[in-house]
Task: inverse folding
């Protein structure tokens, strides 16, 4: 009996399909001119809206309860096959449409792990019924795909919590047609405490602040900024001075949000802050005195320029990029260490920084590099990122994209990116830039020759196995031409119009100086992670291009801004501000900068494993083959990146109990303070003056780059009087080095 019913169902399906004709929109009509829903245009959006093809349901990698759909519908042909043809007559029953499991489970009429997903009288249910009733046909011919979406309100401002506004979502298709897809879209919010959005697209203001609400349809996600203003009864904008365009754009936003910025920091705070940020060390006593004695109005700008010209700046930027590019001496050849390639790569990076070479050219040279890893430093990109005997183009493409474009595209290897616009075609097209790169044995066991292999095929698509030629992100057509496709990638990187590159680089610099990116995390640009101040990011990117894409002018602009020089103490209206830069941010020093700072103030050097005497921590790379992390236990303790990935998150600055214990009883601080007191800088300070006031003053200047406050001086003098011993100065010295003020840039 079951076989007869199955046969009848198949006959009905064939009969109904035979009388259908295609129209220009990809829809079909029956013999009585009733419009039949398109599987791709109408039915798949039902799966999307109902959550059927989400990652927690049938869109997961293994499906759910024996039924699998592609995540958010990236494989419509496969979805049709699995829904209709995999178990004929069961999930879709064309003989008795309302008995189809596809419909019954969605309605909650039969047991379903996902529960009830749609209402029986909803348009979603009616679409499914109409499609199955028409024979559940697949689409005939080419169906215009969604080309993009936009929302009716790109920005909303609410005067107070409790207000609301509806947002419509419009889709544009490849044939130029448009469609209101609000009822088929999904919605979300970044901060529901400020504003939420319901399933119909209605935005509700909850509390003062700013956030972004999102609409997603097909593979596209767009955001709309929502600002909920705090009460303005006592708000008065103070009209602070503006040093440059950065201040203008930040203050415009703060004024709009009714947040008063803090006052500018004092000279002592500025000197320590900018020296740590640009030179990775505290200011010397001589630098402190010279800066304090200078009464000129432009002394801060002059100090910034001097630091940008310093060797310390070159060292620090080399260290930061060396960390992100994973430079160390760990074996990747299978036969020897990588000392020579690591040295060659770091030396090359430093040369580029010292010459203030346009950064797009630096990246382009790495992208197209060929030659010996022992000699041609730029080839280090292909040896340090991929520490494996065989170069993996997928990993290389993902790391390159994350580092230099701020795009995490790893998700698109198996399915279209669930939270961004990148498709599997984008992913495999980008991978194809690197499938032609090979490493061959070089002049010795450490050396590898990076070569271009013209016979190498492009990457193969994971769904259908077709070759995907090299294609730039966001482009529809391959790069074309003959020879090494990396040349086209390099040309794209060097194009001033490449906003992915421009915005990523300036955002990284901003995060280095302000403690948090305009986009945060800094290597995760996507529609669902928008910038906290879009106009500011755009202006910095434009300025980067104006200055030939050199990094020093961006550092100079940011450091000269009033925003960078604000105090850490927030105003009452800015207490809850974490993303709008109304006050400076407390930032714990990186592990390497902290270690170098301790060495600098104590005057006692510290040896680093397998490194020459006098090597600074920022210049150190792990040369220990058997050590998995940084190679140094102090750097490990304070969160130095082990260089396992290119993610900026590998560098940690969060405090821990082990850090406190190390500062108190470890050998990093105590032994150096003891040496400094016995025959070093502290002894010189104490011996040079018998006046306790001036001794304490000198200790504060050396450690914290400031003089003690009246209260601090009085309490310190009490300690000196009570102990009546020069050893108390050793305790004061050690206490200041272990203090939060020393550990943080503020």
Result:
């Amino acid at each position: 009996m079951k076989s007869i019913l199955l046969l009848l169902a198949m006959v009905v399906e064939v009969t109904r399909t035979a009388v259908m004709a295609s129209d220009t929109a990809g829809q079909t009509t029956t013999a009585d001119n009733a419009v039949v829903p398109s599987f791709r245009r109408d039915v798949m959006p039902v799966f999307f809206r109902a959550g059927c093809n989400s990652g927690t349901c049938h869109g997961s990698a293994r499906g759910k309860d024996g039924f699998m759909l592609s995540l958010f519908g990236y494989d419509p042909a496969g979805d049709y096959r699995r829904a209709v043809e995999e178990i004929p007559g069961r999930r879709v029953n064309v003989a008795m449409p309302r008995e189809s499991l596809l419909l019954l489970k969605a309605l909650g009429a039969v047991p379903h792990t996902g529960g009830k997903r749609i209402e029986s009288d909803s348009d979603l249910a009616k679409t499914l019924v109409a499609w199955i009733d028409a024979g559940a046909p697949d689409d005939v011919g080419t169906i215009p795909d969604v080309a993009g979406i936009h929302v009716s309100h790109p920005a909303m401002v609410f005067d107070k919590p409790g207000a609301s506004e509806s947002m419509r979502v419009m889709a544009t298709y490849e044939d130029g047609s448009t469609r209101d897809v609000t009822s088929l879209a999904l919605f979300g919010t970044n901060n529901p405490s400020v504003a939420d959005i319901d399933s119909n697209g209605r935005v509700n203001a909850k509390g003062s602040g700013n956030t972004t609400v999102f609409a997603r349809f097909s593979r596209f996600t767009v955001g709309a900024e929502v600002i909920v203003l705090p009460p303005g009864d006592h708000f008065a904008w103070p009209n602070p001075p503006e040093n440059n365009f950065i201040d203008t754009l930040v203050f415009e936003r703060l004024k709009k949000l009714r947040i008063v910025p803090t006052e500018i920091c004092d000279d002592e705070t500025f000197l320590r802050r900018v020296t740590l940020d640009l030179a990775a060390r505290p200011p010397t006593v001589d630098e402190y005195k010279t800066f304090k004695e200078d009464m000129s109005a432009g002394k801060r700008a002059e100090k910034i320029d001097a630091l940008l010209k310093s060797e310390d700046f070159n060292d620090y930027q080399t260290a930061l990029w060396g960390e992100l590019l994973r430079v160390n001496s760990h074996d990747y050849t299978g036969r020897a260490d990588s000392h020579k390639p690591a040295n060659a790569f770091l030396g090359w990076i430093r040369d580029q920084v010292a010459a203030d070479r346009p950064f797009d050219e630096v990246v382009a040279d790495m992208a197209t590099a060929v030659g010996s890893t022992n000699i041609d430093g730029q080839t280090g990109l292909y040896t340090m990122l991929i520490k494996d005997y065989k170069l993996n183009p997928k990993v290389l493409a993902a790391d390159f994209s994350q580092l230099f474009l701020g795009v995490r595209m790893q998700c698109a290897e198996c399915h279209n990116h669930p939270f961004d616009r990148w498709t599997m075609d984008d992913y495999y097209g980008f991978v194809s830039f690197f499938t032609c790169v090979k490493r061959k044995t070089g002049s010795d066991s450490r050396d590898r020759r990076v070569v271009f292999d013209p016979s190498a095929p492009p990457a193969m698509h994971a769904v259908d196995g077709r070759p995907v030629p090299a294609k730039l992100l966001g482009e529809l057509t391959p790069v074309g031409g003959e020879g090494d496709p990396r040349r086209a990638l390099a040309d794209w990187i060097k194009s001033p119009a490449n906003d992915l590159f421009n915005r990523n680089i300036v955002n990284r610099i901003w995060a280095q100086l302000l403690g948090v990116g305009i986009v945060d995390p800094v290597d995760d640009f996507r529609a669902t992670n928008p910038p906290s101040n879009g106009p500011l990011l755009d202006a910095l990117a434009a300025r980067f291009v104006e200055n030939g894409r050199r990094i020093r002018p961006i550092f100079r602009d940011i450091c000269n801004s009033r925003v960078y020089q604000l105090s850490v103490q927030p105003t009452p209206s800015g207490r809850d501000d974490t993303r709008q830069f109304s006050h400076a941010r407390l930032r714990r020093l990186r592990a390497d900068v902290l270690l170098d700072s301790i060495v600098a103030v104590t005057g006692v050097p510290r040896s680093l494993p397998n490194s020459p005497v006098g090597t600074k921590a920022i210049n150190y790379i792990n040369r220990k083959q058997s050590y998995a992390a940084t190679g140094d236990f102090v750097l490990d303790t304070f969160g130095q990146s082990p260089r396992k990935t290119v993610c900026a998150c590998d560098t940690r600055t969060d405090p821990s109990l082990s850090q406190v214990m190390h500062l108190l009883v470890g050998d990093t601080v105590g032994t150096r303070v003891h040496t400094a007191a016995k025959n070093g800088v502290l002894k010189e300070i104490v011996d040079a003056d018998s006046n306790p006031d001036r001794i304490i003053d000198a200790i504060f200047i050396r450690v914290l780059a400031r003089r003690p406050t009246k209260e601090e001086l009085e309490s310190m003098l009490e300690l000196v009087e009570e102990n009546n011993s020069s050893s108390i100065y050793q305790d004061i010295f050690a206490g200041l080095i272990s203090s939060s003020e020393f550990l943080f840039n503020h």
In short: The radius of gyration is 31 Å. The CA atoms of residues 30 and 741 lie 77 Å apart.
